Amino acid sequence: MRYEDPELLARCAELTEIGADAYLKAAALAAANLVPSEPEDIPTWAKNNVIIPTSVSDRSGPYEMNAIQCAIARMWQDPFIRQVDYLKIARAGATLLISTGMAYHTGHLGFDSLFFERTEPDAQAFHDKKLYQILMASPSLAAMMRPDTKAGIQDGWSDRIFRNGASLQLRSGNKPIKSIKGLFVAIDEAGDEKYSKGPEGNIVTVVRGRLQEFCAPILFVCGTPTVVGCCISDEYSRSDKRHWYMPCPHCQEMIRYEPDVRPGRRDQDTGTGLRYVRNERGVVEDSWYACACGGLIEETSKIEMLEAGEFRATDIGEPGHVGCYTSAAHSTDPQMTWRHVGANHHASLRNEKTRQAYVNLTLAQPYDPAPPILVDTTKLQENVLDAEALPDGIDCPEDAVYLVAAIDNQKGVRDDPRNPPRGEMTVMAACRNNRWHVIAHHVISHLVQERDGHTKRIGFDPFDEDYADQVWDILDKEYVAGDGRLLKIRKCLVDVGWQTEAAYKFCTLPGSRERGILPIRGDTTERAGRRVTLLPTNGTLRKSKKSGRNYLWIGTRDAKDECARRLAIPAPAPGSISFSRSLPETYFEGLIAERLVETKPGVSTWVQTGSNTGEPWDCLQYWYAAKELVIVKNRRLREEVDAVDPTVAQAAIEARLATEEASTIVEGATTDLVVQPPLQGSGSDADPPLQGSGSDADPPEQEAVSSSGLRMRVVERKTRRTETTPEVTSRIERIRRRQSRSGVGW
C-alpha cells in the first residue's frame, strides 16, 4: 500500500522529529515539576533565591539574614514549634523576614501562605512596596508567577496565585476571615490596637482556625508592643520568652542584654546594664554595656557577640509556643546605636509621651500607661525626713536646686469652719538626682487677730487683698537649705478654674507678676479623651478663645501619671518625693484622694474616690508644671536637677535589696481557715474547739461563724523562716535586674 512505502515513512519521521523531540523535553520538564521541592534551610535558600531591590532597601542584593533572623527562620522549620512570636523594636527587619517566609513556603514548597496587616491599605502597601517588588526582582520566584493577560493584571494584590497552584493571600485583621487558609500565616504590627480583643478573642485566636487543615502549620506573630494587654504582649506572655544570649568578651559567659539603661561612669560599678555619659552640651558622648563580671563591653564588640549568640528560653510557656525578644541594644542600624539608646532614655525622663516612646521603640516592652497609686498615708509618711536628715531651722535638703510653688483654690462653704472658701499652697524644692521635696503646705482662708488676750479668726474671700498679702508673704520668704544657702521661690502657678475672673485679676496684679505668679488651666482638649503634653512648646501662654485671656494650659493627665509614679518610689532614691516633718496627717490624706480607674477596655481616667477634695494632690500636679516651666529654657538648672549620681542610685538599690533580704527572716503568725458545713444549731449544740496539750501543741483554735452560717476554725501557728528560699532568691534577683521608668532601678 501507499502508506507502507518505506521512503514515505522515512520522510514523515524526518518531518516530525523536531516536534517529537520538543514534546518529550516538555513532558520531562513537566514531570520534574510535579515532584515536590525538597525542604531547604531557609537562610541558605534565601541567600540563593531572594534578591532585595533598591526600591525596597538600600541594602540591596541577595538577602543574607543576620544571626537573629536566621534563628527565627529556622524555628519555622522545627516540627515541634507551631507559633513563633517576635517582640521587637521598629526597623528590626521583620518585613523582609515575612516576605522571605511567604516566598519560601509558597514558591518553593508549594503551600498557601496567609498575611495579615492592620487595615486593607496597609496590606496592599506591603504587597506593592515590599512583597511584589522582591518577587519580581528574584528570577527564580518571578518565573513562578503567572504572567499578566492582555486584558490587564491577572492576579490582584490580595490573592496572587503561583504556577505551582499555591497562593499568597493578604488580608486586613479588622475584617471577618472566611474561606481562607494557609500553612504559613504571618501577622505583622501585632501591637496595634486594631488587633485588640473582640467577641472571639484577639486576631491570633481567630487566625489559629485557619491552620487546622494542615498537619504542621506555622504561625508567626511579630510587632512592636504598645501598651500592656496589646496582642503581641499577650501572645508573648504565653510563650517560653526566649532572649538572645551572647558570650561576654571578658568572661566568656553567655549573657543577655538587660533592659537597664541609665547614666554611669566607667570608674564606678553601677550594676549590669547599658550605661552612658553626657557632656556639657547634653549630648551622649560615651556608652558601654556593663557585664556582671565587671567588664565593660564596647559597642564595637556587638556584631561579633550577636553572631555567636543563640535564643534561650527563660520560661516554660505553652507547648509549641516560642517567643523571641530583642531590643534596641541588639540593633545594628547606624541610626540606633547605644548612644542613641542613652539619648532616648534621657529624653524619656521629660514626660509621659516620650517615656512611652522609649519603652516601646527602644526597650521593645509594653507600656503601662499610668499605674495607680499603690501607697497609703502610712507608706507616704515613711518618706518624711527625720531630724538627722533635716535638722530644725533647715527648710529643705542640701541638694535643693530651686524652689517653686503652686496654689489650688476651693470654694468651700462660707459658714462652715471645717470647709471654708480657701486657697491651698504647696512650696516644694527641686533637688539633684531628680528628687522632689515638699517644704510646706499652707491653707489660706482667714486672718488671725489677737485682742484682749483672745484670738479671733476672720474669714475672707480668695483673691481679695488679705488673700494676696498672705500669698505674697509666703513668696517673699527666704528658705534655708541644708548647706546654708538661702533660696527664694522662682515661680508660682495658680489654678483659675474657680472664680476665673477674680483669680485672673489676682494673677495680673503688679505684685503677683513681679513674684512670678501665672494663671493656669487644664487643657480642655483632654476632655475628649485626647492626651496632651504637660506644657506647651517653650512654656508659652495661650489665649482662651472664649474669654480672650492668656493662660498656661497644662496636660493634667501627664502630671497625674508622673506624680503617681513618684509617690510610689521610696525616698531618698532618685526620682522620689520626700516630705518635711511639719506636714499634718490631712496633707497625706489629700495626696491619695484620686485613683486611676478603667472606664472601658483600654481607657482609664483619674477620679475622686471619697469626700476629700484633694487640694494637696492638685497642688502637686501644678507644682510639677511649675518646676518644668522653670527649666524649659534654663539648661544649667535642667542638667543639675536631672543628673543622677550613680553612687546614689546604687545606694538606693542596695538599700532596697537589704530590705528585701531582711524580710526573708520573718517571725509571725499564720492563720489557717478550715471551712465546715453550715451549723445545724447554735450554742451548746456546736462542737467545742479543739484544745492542744503539752508545750509542743499548737495554740488553741478559735471558732468563728460567718454571716452565711459557715463555721470556721481559726488556727494560729507560730512560724519562723531563717533561710532564703528559692522563691525569695529569685525575687531578689529580679529586683537586681529591675529597670524602672526612671532608669535607676525603681
UniProtKB/TrEMBL annotation:
Residues 675-746 are annotated as: Disordered. Residues 69-310 form the Phage terminase large subunit GpA ATPase domain. Residues 336-633 form the Terminase large subunit GpA endonuclease domain. Signal peptide: none annotated. One of its GO terms (molecular function) is ATP hydrolysis activity. Residues 713-724 have a biased composition (Basic and acidic residues). It holds the Pfam family GpA_nuclease. InterPro entries: GpA_ATPase, GpA_endonuclease. This is Terminase. The lineage of its organism: Bacteria, Pseudomonadati, Pseudomonadota, Alphaproteobacteria, Hyphomicrobiales.
